[in-house]
Design brief:
Blueprint lengths: L1 E2 L16 E3 L6 E3 L7 H8 L4 E4 L8 H14 L7 E4 L4 H6 L3 H12 L7 H17 L2 H8 L3 H15 L6 H36 L11
Parallel strand pairs: 4-5
Antiparallel strand pairs: 1-4, 2-3
Helix pairs in contact: 4-8, 5-6, 5-7, 5-8, 6-7
Protein name: Helix-turn-helix domain-containing protein
InterPro entries: CdaR-like_regulators, PucR_C-HTH_dom, PucR_C-HTH_sf
Organism: Kitasatospora aburaviensis
Amino acid sequence: MALYSSPGTPPPGLSGAEVVAGIKGTLPYLLIPDPLPGMPRALALWLEGRTAVVGPAVPVEDAVVSLGWARKLLTMVPQGASAGIHFVEDHLATLMLFQDPLLASHLSAKWLGRLADMTPQQRQWTEETLLAWLEGGGTLPAARLLRIHPQAVRNRLRNLEKVFGSGLRDPRARFELLLALKIQIMASEYARLRRRAGMQSLLQTAGPNRTVRTNGR
């Protein structure tokens, strides 16, 4: 388990010899056997109001790898933006996509950069249509997901063929395009979390009797 800051001395339920705790350094962590009776409740009470990430259960020799995954995910969950216990098992795809942020950004730009000349509204429609078509597996499922007439989806796809060409018929290209869309969605979500964390930090710094100005006002 990776933490932003030390939560203090572990409670009795977590202070046994089975638990390895490194809570005094700049990168606090806990190594806990799986399962440990009463561990989830003890952890929840001890870490209340804090952000922590739990790596998957692995053999002892791979514990450092699991901790590394937890620390990577922790950097993607800004402190204070989403307090609570997060599990690597719930974010495996995200971690895989962002193990190399530069490569992920390059993949996204390779495909979605072609939409740069569109208006924000056109780009939104295009990306929503692409995602629904790729995830749904065809025109009719996409129409149901988007709640529009199938002919409207076909019209949009004809326009998309002008942008992506034969790539829409290439399974490998479609896979990369789906990854590019997912990368953008995930990046937007984590950016939103960081903005939220920044605003919370600003409000805490300002205190209850001071006014915080935003948007230049």
